[in-house]
Amino acid sequence: MKDLTPRREDLEPIEIASRDEIAALQLDRMKWSLRHAYDNVPFYKDSFDKAGVHPDDLHSLDDLRKFPFTVKQDLRDNYPFGMFAVPREQIARVHASSGTTGQPTVVGYTKRDLDTWAGVVARCLRASGLRPGDVLHNAYGYGLFTGGLGIHAGAEKLGLTVVPVSGGMTPRQVRLIEDFQAKGITVTPSYMLSILDEYRAQGFDPRESPLEVGVFGAEPWTNAMRKEVEDAFDMHAVDIYGLSEVIGPGVANECVETKDGLHVWEDHFYPEIVNPETGEPVADGELGELVFTSLTKEAFPIIRYRTRDLTRLLPGTARTMRRMEKVTGRSDDMIILRGVNVFPTQIEEQLLTVPTLAPHFQIELTRKGRMDHMIVHVEATTGAASEHAREASARQLASRIKSVVGITAEIRAAEPGKVARSQGKAVRVVDNRPRD
What we know:
The chain has helices at residues 19-40, 42-51, 72-77, 111-127, 146-158, 170-180, 189-201, 223-233, 344-351, 387-405, and strands spanning 93-96, 106-109, 135-138, 161-163, 184-187, 213-216, 236-243, 248-254, 262-264, 269-274, 288-294, 305-311, 313-314, 323-324, 335-337, 340-342, 357-368, 371-380, 410-414, 429-431. The strands form five sheets. The protein has a nine-stranded mixed sheet with strand order 4-3-5-6-7-8-9-14-13, sandwiched between helices. Strands 19-18-17-20 form a four-stranded mixed sheet. A three-stranded antiparallel sheet has the order 10-11-12. A hairpin with a 7-residue loop joins strand 8 and strand 9 (262-264). 30% of the residues lie in helices and 23% in strands. The protein has 436 residues and is α/β, with parallel strands linked by helices. Helix 4 (111-127) crosses helix 5.
């Protein structure tokens, strides 16, 4: 892999500013954001008043813990525009969740917000190793999902040549990567595996592709998957983090020279880690739930938003700003199986240790009698597709999961291509347990 480390002179001064400079900027911007939310969003005025706090009570960054949390249900309860802090006529763009699990959550942006968003995404792409003039193959979905348009605007701001291919039509993805000589690709990690399959199906050697860096986000993925992709394509694989409630993609990103966690762009987003059960802040370095407060957003300020993502905060390395450890699970994605806490990424890590199985998988939860039961649907590689080989692979994976994760899982190893492919966010868990 090529050395894609950015030149120090290409970084924004705030990325390498002192911690004191960053903290002073954060405090100034946090005071503005709390006041902006309190004065212009009835939900926040009511929430602060009920908690007995006022924006003037913030004298230090530690005082933020006095203020109440915001959760996803609050956004749903104020659907569609109740969380906006500017008149609807000043909203330049609206994005929304799919609403498949309830009322959609709606977010809005002023023109200044869109410029801020493009700026932090451009910072992410530069940190990933991309430079003005590079070709970026953007395979995130376009539309109400923030991924496609968010990456697109940041790429243009950085000066990249953007190929807005979106998701789907995988054979065409490979052709455009090759024909347009894309240096970078932005895509969900699960769909990158589908693109890898298609490379091999078309007879291309992925290691000979023009890709030098992949920027993967929108779903948890492991370092084992990073190695799988980097080895297959001979390219860098870095993590990008974001969520629409905070701004979209661009909240944090790994630096290609270290790949040791995602640097949070703390001049725009203030991170906290709290105990998921008590809500009390924990010290940097301790595992907990990630909480964000926006510092510069006009249309949709967000105060102490509980993301449900589990991670820890660490000191900066390649940048002064703090890092968040790679998110490998969410508190609301955790499976409790016969008293054991399990995350899909734990299953993925063990799957990737079995060379005769492809990296595609889906977990099905069922019930046998009174006991919950886990079925892991996997598929064999082309060279190990016989029934005997598949049975042996299934036994190997079951043993790995039992010894490392600590649960008994039924493994169903199918022929190649039989596990459902993702063209966006992967559906890792299907819960078919009866509703009591």
